[in-house]
Amino acid sequence: MAFIIHTIVFALNACKQRVSLRIPRSENLLETLSRLSFWKLIAVLFCVTLYSNGTTARNNSDTTYLPAHELEIARLIYDHNMHSTWGPGRPWWSIDWPEAEQHFTDGVQRYTTIDIAPDSRHIRLNDNALFDFPFLFVQQPGRWHLQTDERQQLRKYLLRGGFMVVDDFHGPQQWNTFYEVMREVLPEYRIVDIPRGDELLHVLYELEQRTQIPGRRHLYNTGENIAVQMPHTPPRWRGIYDDENRLMVAINFNMDVGDAWEHADDPVYPIAMTSLAYRFGINYLIYSMTH
């Protein structure tokens, strides 16, 4: 309680000029608040809320951040490119959030002993806290636009041991957008198909399937079963390896693993595809923690 009162006092001191508030030394906070008119009290609460939100936003980029869990997924914040709109009600980088992370981390807790945070941490490449996260999740990289300094920072992150998973981008135009960025980030490394014997596919679950994991919007109920009509094929599980054959970037192309996580509780979404998406995700996590 004392901490809460101290926080409110600090916030009031930061914005008391806006509400013409004075706290006499002879009074405590509660006495002062009890003297306020209704509208002035509302102004105080509004001011404290703004201050609290600002403090939270600053803490989100605090480079001294200490995670409370063994593993926390980082989700990349980026600006969209000139060929893309802002997004369907939200920016493209946040597609499928928060349901995808909530359902997936629940599955990680059920099927493994990994102490994982229940939500992702949203972070930009120019935030040095990026290097505290071994797993970077990127949705819709076919729409991203990275500045020169962001591309340089991404290169440092990957070469220092970071692991990036890109998901939910489709067709030649979005592939070219992703490829042009990665060609500048890691010009000396090729994008290749992940071979069947790769450790990523066997680190926990044996993943021999190359089934196309669809977006929810591409599922159709025919009355007898659920049909999948993805606009682009085939699905490609690709990657970028470093000189020691460590996978730095895992690429889900013409697939939507995030949707499979997001709609894990949707009776229309096929259980087999959600299960496959969970297994791939968990293998990704374990690989990021051990490589």
Tell me what you see in this structure.
This protein has helices at residues 2-19, 29-34, 38-59, 99-111, 148-159, 171-185, 257-262, 271-290; strands spanning 74-76, 79-80, 121-123, 135-139, 144-145, 163-169, 191-193, 219-221, 226-228, 236-241, 247-253. The protein has 291 residues and is of the alpha/beta class. The protein has 2 domains: 2-59, no CATH class; 74-290, Domain of unknown function DUF4159 (Rossmann fold). A 7-stranded mixed sheet has the order 3-1-4-6-11-10-7. The chain has a two-stranded antiparallel ribbon with strand order 2-5. Strands 8-9 form a two-stranded antiparallel sheet. α1 (2-19) crosses α3 (38-59) and α5 packs across α6 (171-185). The chain is globular and about 50 Å long. Mean pLDDT is 82; it is low at 1-30 and 48-62.
CATH architecture verdict of the largest domain: 3-Layer(aba) Sandwich
| Portion of residues within helices | 25-40%
Strand content: 15-25%
Termini, distance in Å?
44 Å
Order of helices and strands: HHHEEHEEEHEHEEEEEHH
Largest sheet: 7 strands, mixed
Q: What name does CATH use for the topology of the largest domain?
A: Rossmann fold
Poorly predicted ranges: 1-30, 48-62
Number of strand elements: 11
Radius of gyration: 23 Å
Q: What would you say about this model in short?
A:
About 40% of the residues lie in helices and about 15% in strands. With about 290 residues, the protein is α/β, with parallel strands linked by helices.
